[in-house]
Amino acid sequence: MRTPSTLMTLFSTSSTPSILHQNMKMNSSEQPSTLLNSSTWPPISSSGLGLSCLSMTFGAVSNLTALGILVKSRVRFRRQSKTPFLLLTVALLMADFGGHMIPGAFVMYLYKQEEKQPTFCQIFGACMVFFGLCPLLFGCAMAMERCVAIAKPFYHATVITVTHAQRVVLFLASLALMLAVLPLFAVGTYSAQFPGTWCFLPIHGPQSTADTRLALAFSGLGLTALTLSLLCNILSGVVLLKARINRHNVNAKLKARCTCCPSSASTSSVFWSLEVEMMAQLAAITVVSCVCWSPFLIHILVMKLNRSPRDSTDVPDGLTLLCLRMASWNQVLDPWIYILLRRAVISRACCAFYPHRPRVTADGS
Questions:
Q1: Which of 115, 209, 226, 364 is the most interior residue, by most CB within 10 Å?
Q2: pLDDT by residue (tens digit) across 227-286?
Q3: Calpha distance 17→165 (Å, rounded)
């Protein structure tokens, strides 16, 4: 039997080794753990196959339903010059949909295929990082776009266009993709994580400096996006509250003097209700993202900052798995925010609980 050093010697004398295979061989020798070695996988129980299929199907159907609702409401968004927000929302839901289907298909492969190739774990880990960062970055862009639209409406109307939104989506997706593919070019590595059903950047045990920096970059970028989303939503909420108070005072004065034009009031009501609807959806997305993603991101940050030489990769880490499952629920809950937090649904719910109150009509009156 050839020893690991002999295998490395044979590999180093190869004529034209690829960068990807060289990276995986180096990582195999540096991390001899049974759980984190990308070429040796622990046995996977088939008991979770049904639950994984159900979760992937439910998430995909939810995201497709939310996308269908957005397509129907595109005329209403365009009439109020909210197309950049609509584009960012579609990008978020598409990222959630891809985060369900592609990693879910990889999980199905792990359950069905007995022999796993080392290249598979590298691609699986890259997808996990990419589809993990994209929803957080897109959610942050949505919060910043709404903050500018509410705080500086004239600047937003004259400067922010659909082209700018497309460039932002492309830039954020490229940023996530660049971080995700670095281990494929010998900068860090991806490894199988407990219980062997997913691949990610090494979290426990001995690892290289590149692995640590990549994990810190992933955690720091995600936490920064969540923090900016919270700050932007708080600022937008304060501006909306002040505008509501001022609007109420102005309407009271106008009613005391004369009767307002109905068309003007209807237009203002439609604009106001759409702004509140969008802010409610965005605030719910931010809360859900913080609750789902914060444990996983903070756990990675703490593990990297408190590294101990006694860390063992052979010990099953249930906490990391629990944090990952919480993060995966973000992609399931995001589409239901758009399905449930709509004026039509909220007005019907209010009429069901308060049947004697006047019902909100389609024109916002």
A1: 226
A2: 999 999 999 888 888 887 877 777 677 766 665 444 444 444 544 566 777 788 888 989
A3: 41
